[in-house]
Amino acid sequence: MPSVGRDVPxxxxxxxxxxxxxxxxxxxxxxxxxxxxxxxxxxxxxxHPNKDRNIVQGVSGVAGDILDCYEEQVPLYQSVGILSDxxxxxxxxxxxxxxxxPSVSGSMMVDxxxxxxxxxxxxxxxxxxxxxxxxxxxxxxxDIWTFEEFEEIGRAFVENSxxxxxxxxxxxxxxxxxKVRLIYLRSMGGDVYNETMTxxxxxxxxxxxxxxxxxxxxxxxxxxxxxxEVKNLSSATAxxxxxxxxxxxxxxxxxNRPRWAIIFFRELGLRNLAVSEYPHGGFRNTIxxxxxxxxxxxxxxxxxAPYFLKFLTSExxxxxxxxxxxxxxxxxxxxxxxxxxxxxEFPNEWGxxxxxRDIANDTSLPISxxxxxxxxxILRIEKKAYDKFSLNRSSAREALQRRSKx
Length: 406
What we know:
By secondary structure, the chain is of the alpha/beta class. Helices cover 42% and strands 12% of the residues. It is built from 18 helices and eleven strands. The strands form three sheets. Strands 1, 2, 3, 6, 10 and 11 form a six-stranded mixed β-sheet that branches. A three-stranded antiparallel β-sheet has the order 8-7-9. Strand 1 (10-14), helix 1 (19-35) and strand 2 form a beta-alpha-beta unit. It is globular. The chain starts with 9 loop residues before the first strand and ends with a helix.
């Protein structure tokens, strides 16, 4: 409830609850005081923060002052008129798009105007459980590998990790999500759109090749579990994030998550880790994305809300993200700090974070997006094609060609 008897402007930040968010509110107050900025109170609004709630409350005039959003949501929110154009104030106060990673800066813009700024940035890669590889009698996998090397090592891992003639309980890694399938596809020169962004790329022969390769890895070589096997494995494991627990137990050799997974690995006591890129078919790449803050167009506090976005560029905030493990700091130069590379309490991680930085700098690309189609629509269309093929209800070509016409 509002503080009694205090005439202090107040911001409401609609975001998922976490201990780190509460810590960041404290840091924001300290930063305001240190810099002689106006006194501002800020509170978290954590009651079911999601896309639908933001849109419904936004068009109704009652959304929070600061809206949490992701790269695919910025153009959606802007199209329904709930985001404030921050282009001029961002340039004036120093949180314009040029301050963050070039590979994500474009998705904060619509028609050349800026509408958001990142609070953290994620890049996808494989975590490696070194104890699981040692138990399987194998050396750690390479940092960079081809599809052929990935298949060979995966076969050896599952053969050495599962007793013969018994139900398989240990796999190389989880089945690849759409983003990972897209990384595989891009490594061979394909994408979800053609070169001119005017036609679907789903019916590309390269997509068929990726589908067939994943099908072989899942059903013939069984280095990935099938969808049914994932369900059976999850029901028998600990509560919480089942896949992460299985990785900690050595039941997966690899695990697909951004840097923020280190927060949970620390809690689970998982210390013997390495990092590797995704296997490739010729072109090394990965996907970069972000969680961002935007200012609600209907806010009564648009004069003070920019201070919070400026805070996201501060050393205090970026070092907090770097040390906590909450993915990458929004300002790239803080990936070169001791807080990011060598966290004092976790010397076992000192070889990990520099490799993550290099993956972000050297191989990361944003998701291809169109002003005419929502990203969730593309995701849904591709998933229907993949599911139909993986359930043996059609060939890869038939499934992809049918969906590409939608």
